[in-house]
Amino acid sequence: MTVPPVDSIETVQSPEWADILIKGAARLGVAVSAQACRQLARHARELLVWNRRINLTTITEPYAMAEKHYIDSLAAVAHIGQGASVLDIGAGGGFPGLPIHIVRPDTRVTLMDARARKVSFLKHAIRALGLSGADVIQGRAEALQNEGLLFDVVLSRALMAPVAFIELARGFCRPGGAVLVMQGREDPDQTVSDQEDLQEGADIRLPRVVKETYNLPYSRARRGIIVVTL
């Protein structure tokens, strides 16, 4: 197997990378233990190795990975209750589901992706990290809506426009659960300004909608999370 340059692998396993990740997450109010940081670094290593064979991420610079993949994924932690079951739709390389579960092992995370090769990576990563509360489902969410799969929290990172994702995700969400839409750059197709924007586009009345914005700790890139409580 062809592997990335050794300096990339060494960097994600270095004390400096760990320091960047732990301090950056703390700025978003998330505590990352030394054990969790080691697991996140192992995931990053596996991601870099597998990324040479399959397209898992376009972000491969180690410190950018720490901020734009791992720290950004952890921004959702504040909106996930103790012991919650979580579904990550379109998990790809494991974001945001795996970082959330690693930092919050009380959660039970299911990663869903339609692509067999990405599912293979996710299963490998779960085995390599020794995670007991994570699982993987292969399939398109649209085709699995009637399979009785219900979770406390359903989320994704910049998978599709917010209204479309909420309509899709609510079929997997228990009554009283929440849908989290994690937004990336300020793309008009990916963002909404307030609850009225969502209500106008949705087919159902959304009981409670909150939009939170934040900046990543180092690049100051703008991000957002829409929380819909059903």
Plain-language structure description:
The protein is α/β, with parallel strands linked by helices and 230 residues long. The chain contains 9 helices and 7 strands, in the order H-H-H-H-E-H-E-H-E-H-E-H-E-H-E-E. It has helices at residues 6-12, 15-27, 34-50, 62-74, 97-103, 116-129, 141-144, 162-169, 195-201; strands at 85-89, 108-113, 134-138, 151-157, 173-183, 208-215, 222-229. The longest helix has 17 residues, at 34-50. The chain is globular, with a radius of gyration of 17 Å. The N and C termini lie far apart (46 Å). The model is unreliable at 187-191 (pLDDT under 50).
Give the helix/strand layout:
Elements: H1 6-12, H2 15-27, H3 34-50, H4 62-74, E1 85-89, H5 97-103, E2 108-113, H6 116-129, E3 134-138, H7 141-144, E4 151-157, H8 162-169, E5 173-183, H9 195-201, E6 208-215, E7 222-229
Parallel strand pairs: 1-2, 1-4, 2-3, 4-5
Antiparallel strand pairs: 5-7, 6-7
